[in-house]
Design a protein that fits this description.
single chain; about 300 residues; alpha+beta; Uridine Diphospho-n-acetylenolpyruvylglucosamine Reductase, domain 3; Enolase-like, domain 1; 3 domains; about 30% helix; globular; binds flavin-adenine dinucleotide
Length: about 300
């Protein structure tokens, strides 16, 4: 199918882009186009006006300042494939997560911010934003404001951003050097979105977990922060199990069961019913926590660890 007819503008500044969005027409931003163009071709989205932000230089910027990574709206997924593109454990976590986003041609055009704007429940970046307490910077007719990720995702493809607001950037707090990180994804085929994926960070200054962050991908109608599972880990030793299997009585396996029973609210999918998906959450949370614990061990060289 071909898209319905639309007008097309190419602003050169954020102001021009915001003015175009606020002109009272059904307008859509074009960033990487990897979701929008497909939806337009299928005529599931029929904007009157497409606002192409690819010529706005101030959006093509990534910076680290005062312990925060700021990612502009034109930074492509592929920018995060190199672990050192972002300092510290956050760079490791991003590089492990991003290779699960679609495949290389899509990653070379699609943007992290576009993914947050689209708000697909199975999008890896959305779960990372929730788990890491990201802040989403938007700019509309009323000026700029920041929306906390926890207040941003309202449902599938539904956010608290208003249609006249452009997302200019997203801000992630950097992670302390002794934080362990993990990302594990299960998908049916290489080309599918995640059936379930989990992002986790563990902080354990003296070998005992003081903070855990767990983000669940495609485990509800929106990205989920697994707060009950995080709470269940506080005070547990960070020592990972010796083998690949996580014994049922290990704190990571227990946290997995808590996540599956209390945090996740999976919906049935054609290839996976709710029971299967809950089981996948339990297993993947356990595995991701193991990966995070081993990652921390590799950073600190000891399960007791050190501070930043
Ligand atoms: C075959 C295929 C497989 C894929 N697999 C995955 C996957 O496994 N995981 C995953 O996360 N994604 C996947 N995607 C989606 C891909 O990651 C997209 O790149 C991403 O969802 C959107 O980014 P974009 O920059 O291409 O946005 P666009 O397609 O340009 O825009 C998407 C939507 O967001 C809006 N938008 C974009 N930028 C802004 C902004 N700055 N402010 C306000 N609104 C904005 C647009 O108006 C549009 O409604 C897949 C896509 C395809 C085609």
């Amino acid at each position: 199918m071909k898209p319905a007819a639309f007008d097309y503008v190419v602003p050169r500044t954020v102001r021009e882009a915001v003015d175009a969005l606020g002109a009272g027409r059904d307008a859509r931003i074009l960033a990487g186009g990897q979701s929008l163009v497909l939806e337009m071709r299928l005529q599931r989205v029929r904007p009157e006006l497409v606002v192409d932000i690819n010529r706005v230089p101030e959006l093509d910027h990534m910076s680290v300042d005062d312990g925060t990574l700021r990612v502009g709206a034109l930074i492509r997924h592929a920018s995060f494939e190199r672990e050192r593109a972002v300092p510290g454990p956050l760079g490791t976590l991003f590089s492990r997560a991003v290779v699960n986003v679609a495949h290389p041609p899509i990653r070379s055009r699609g943007t992290l911010v576009g993914s947050l704007a689209w708000a697909h429940p199975a999008a890896e970046w959305c779960a990372l934003a929730i788990a890491l307490d990201a802040g989403i910077e938007v700019h509309g007719a009323g000026g700029p404001r920041e929306i906390a990720a926890r207040d941003y995702f309202l449902g599938p493809f539904l956010t608290s951003r208003t249609p006249d607001e452009l997302i200019t950037a997203v801000r992630f707090p950097l992670l302390a050097d002794d934080t362990g990180v993990g990302f594990v994804e299960h998908r049916r085929t290489h080309f599918c979105f995640a059936q379930v994926a989990v992002a986790a960070t563990l902080t354990a200054p003296d070998g005992v977990i003081t903070e855990a962050r767990i983000g669940l991908v495609n485990c509800a109608d929106r990205p989920v922060r697994a707060r009950a599972a995080e709470q269940a880990l506080i005070g547990a030793e960070i020592t990972p199990p010796a083998g690949r299997r996580v014994p049922g009585d290990h704190p990571f396996a227990r946290a997995g069961r808590v996540a599956a029973e209390q945090d996740a609210a999976p919906l049935p999918e054609p290839y996976a019913d709710v029971e299967y998906r809950r089981q996948a959450v339990a297993v993947l949370v356990g595995r991701t926590l193991c990966e995070a614990a081993r990652d921390r061990l590799s950073r600190t060289g000891t399960s007791q660890g050190g501070h930043r």
